[in-house]
Design goal:
The chain is mainly β. The protein is built from 2 helices and 12 strands, in the order H-E-E-E-E-E-E-E-E-E-E-E-E-H. Helices cover about 15% and strands about 35% of the residues. Strands 1, 2, 4, 5, 7, 10 and 12 form a 7-stranded antiparallel β-sheet that branches. Strands 3-6-11-8-9 form a 5-stranded antiparallel β-sheet, with no helix packed on it. Helix 1 packs antiparallel against helix 2. The longest helix is centred in the C-terminal third of the chain and has 20 residues.
């Protein structure tokens, strides 16, 4: 007669088969909430071809197409009903580009490199600037976004416009990837890229609270796998004997 494995035996099997998982570590991102430069309420600080401290521009394009990158302090305005998710400022990718719908954004290459047997989780607050009288532009609509994690020049994980934040609201984008025991881009620098897709509706995407966590997920050891195999073999013989 076949019987289920006793609970202690199941626990032992799980302990042998599953490796211990280390605590997650937040990797260093410069200016992750766009607080530098310090900016007064209801004020934009930025440029047409350069990003805020720690960030560079991805695909700046022609400056006469009114493509602005920088930070915005939404305080005292209805651009965001709850203000900035973290701190005072939010990152800005503004693309008033009626004749050329090329995407653009902000990017940052980190000091950390892609490690094997590691899970990475990138979270970013993605915002839809709310229209209001006196804003200077019609911010109605949302042009779409993409949040990417790269190793070297290769995108290893992305969130391609899966969220649809309402006007004057932020939503949290989460991008996760687990790197196994081998990867073609192992050892290459990690890069975070935040993109405004420049779709036909809306002109600005805002970003805030950029965080990248890494946690080691080692493979099961050979000894553990052999131990598990031996345990299961003994258990099968006992089943048959019963």
């Amino acid at each position: 007669m076949h019987r289920n494995l006793p609970a202690p035996l199941l626990a032992l099997a799980a302990a042998l088969a599953l490796p211990a998982v280390a605590d997650a570590v937040l990797l260093t991102i410069t200016n992750p909430s766009f607080e530098n430069p310090v900016t007064n309420p209801s004020t934009f600080t930025g440029a047409q071809a350069s990003g805020p401290a720690g960030w560079t521009v991805y695909n700046a394009g022609q400056t006469n197409n009114l493509r602005y990158f920088g930070v915005w302090n939404p305080a005292t305005t209805p651009s965001y009903v709850a203000g900035a998710p973290d701190g005072a400022n939010v990152g800005v990718v503004f693309l008033e580009n009626t004749s050329n719908f090329a995407e653009a954004g902000l990017r940052q290459t980190l000091a950390d490199t892609l490690q094997l047997s590691t899970q990475y989780t990138l979270t970013v607050e993605v915002g839809n600037f709310g229209p209001y009288a006196g804003a200077g532009w019609d911010f109605t609509g949302f042009p779409g976004y993409r949040v990417e994690l790269l190793a070297g020049s290769t995108v290893i994980a992305s969130d391609n416009n899966s969220l649809a934040p309402a006007e004057a609201q932020f939503l949290t984008s989460t991008v996760a990837v687990t790197i196994g025991a081998s990867h073609a881009n192992a050892g290459q620098p990690l890069t975070v890229r935040l993109v405004n897709l420049n779709g036909p509706a809306g002109i600005e995407v805002n970003f805030d609270r950029v965080q990248l966590a890494a946690v080691a997920v080692p493979e099961p050891s050979s000894a553990a796998l052999l131990g598990l195999a031996a345990l299961m073999a003994v258990t099968r013989r006992r089943w048959r004997a019963d």
